[in-house]
Design brief:
The chain is an alpha/beta fold. Helices cover 37% and strands 22% of the residues. Helix 3 packs parallel to helix 4 and helix 6 crosses helix 7.
């Protein structure tokens, strides 16, 4: 098994053949998903080459550990993680495939569960080398107050930046990244909007990141 920022590869071995498989998907958990699919295909007598081709053709669900690749020398992942466990999962995934630092950019939604905010701050700070706290659909709440709730959970001495403007936060995170680093932009995933007050603005983490990287 080989895990990298570009995908996952492994050898699929059956009683009849062995076949190398390369997934575009990141993370060891996707190997188990692939094995389940391969098992069904094998039981239907599909040849190894065809199974490997099919698995290799699978692409990410938009906004779920989605890579943003514009030829940069570091990894950028956009993920919908907006709960403590989901945030923990994507940061650990990035840590398993990136060689150097992990930079996590995230915020918490307004008018939603306040109790999770400090917990997510704690998780991000403990698992990342740099945490950038920003806004994420603040709705009717003051973004700075939401950020203050997040910051309550961040242990003293951890490296953290506070940038309310999400676009500027993404630009800062990407600008600080170096070869081998991993940058996680978490919370919005596939969403293409930002809710501020009573207004909805177009905002896509992936598009913003691509704009800075190109």
């Amino acid at each position: 098994i080989r895990l990298s920022h570009q995908g996952t590869s492994f050898v699929l071995s059956t009683p009849r053949w062995k076949q190398k498989v390369r997934l575009q998907l990141l993370g060891e958990f996707n190997i188990y998903n692939a094995l389940a699919a391969a098992g069904v295909a094998y039981s239907l007598d599909y040849p190894g080459e065809q199974i490997a081709f099919g698995l290799g053709s699978l692409s990410n669900v938009p906004g779920r550990a989605e890579r943003v690749d514009c030829g940069q020398v570091f990894t950028v992942l956009v993920d919908y993680a907006h709960t403590p466990e989901a945030l923990r999962g994507i940061i650990k995934l990035a840590g398993s495939v990136c060689k150097r630092r992990i930079i996590t950019i995230f915020g918490c939604g307004g008018d939603r569960d306040r109790a999770k905010r400090p917990l997510m701050g704690k998780i991000a700070a403990e698992l990342s080398d740099l945490t950038i706290v920003t806004s994420d659909n603040p709705r009717s709440e003051d973004p700075k107050k939401i950020m203050a709730d997040i910051l309550k959970g961040i242990p003293a001495g951890r490296e953290v930046l506070k940038i309310p403007d999400r676009k500027k936060a993404i630009r800062e995170g990407l600008g600080l990244a170096k070869e081998g680093d991993g940058v996680i932009i978490a919370g919005k995933g596939h969403e293409d909007y930002q809710v501020v007050g009573g207004e909805i603005f177009r905002f896509s983490d992936k598009e913003i990141a691509e704009g800075f990287l190109r």
